[in-house]
UniProtKB/TrEMBL annotation:
InterPro entries: LZ3wCH (IPR040661), Mnd1 (IPR005647), Mnd1_HTH (IPR040453), WH_DNA-bd_sf (IPR036390). Residues 79-147 form a coiled coil. Residues 150-204 form the Leucine zipper with capping helix domain. Keywords: Coiled coil, DNA recombination, Meiosis, Nucleus. It comes from the Eukaryota. Signal peptide: none annotated. This is Meiotic nuclear division protein 1 homolog.
């Protein structure tokens, strides 16, 4: 019986992003380490590494509230990030193609008479490097062309849901603050200071 192949890093990244998109909630790392293995088959020990790679690529947002660090991601954010990357790669390819054209022109001049020279070798080497870079950029660009069109259709709806989710968390914070004031006779300013809650903290309009 063949041994079951483990998930690659890219597969884990994709599945963890799917979890965020499906749940549309904020999570602590410990919560993700419990949910991801059950729902997405990602081992709990690898969740932190996969999550950090998504944060580094700006596909997952994170913020510290008090002593807790929360993570969240919405498809609209992912689409915006991909569009920026797509534009960046397109610009790089355009610049690369200009350099290749310039190098090709120099190569033709260097090939005149087919004389062997150090300048000709240098130009050939530079051309090979530029062609390799251009090919790599085109391959990466192709990856970003595979964005799900449904994301664009649902972008407005996801934005509304993100706003509702943010206001729901804001309401929770206000509820907890009120409870602390009544239960422990604390001042709201002291609570805000200790838990890093800004003065302009309020519902999203």
């Amino acid at each position: 019986m063949s041994k079951k192949r483990g998930l690659s890093l890219e597969e884990k990244r994709t599945r963890l992003l799917e979890l965020f998109y499906e749940k549309k909630e904020f999570f602590l790392l410990k919560e993700l380490e419990k949910i991801a293995p059950k729902e997405k088959g990602i081992t709990s020990m690898s969740v932190k590494e996969v999550l950090q790679s998504l944060v580094d690529d700006n596909l997952v947002d994170t913020d510290k509230i008090g002593t807790s660090i929360y993570f969240w991601a919405y498809p609209s954010k992912a689409m915006h990030t991909r569009q920026q990357k797509l534009q960046q790669l397109t610009d790089q390819i355009s610049e690369c193609e200009k350099k290749i054209a310039s190098t090709t022109k120099l190569l033709k001049q260097a090939n005149s008479g087919r004389e062997q020279s150090s300048d000709r070798d240098t130009v050939l080497k530079e051309l090979a490097q530029k062609e390799k870079l251009c090919k790599e950029l085109e391959q990466e660009l192709e990856r970003y062309k595979e964005c799900d069109p449904e994301v664009l259709k649902n972008m407005q709806q996801e934005t509304i849901m993100a706003k509702e989710g943010a206001n729901r968390w804001t309401d929770n914070v206000f509820t907890i603050k009120t409870w602390c004031v009544r239960k422990f006779s604390l001042e709201e300013k002291m609570i805000d200071k200790n838990f890093g809650i800004p003065e302009d903290f309020d519902y999203m309009e």
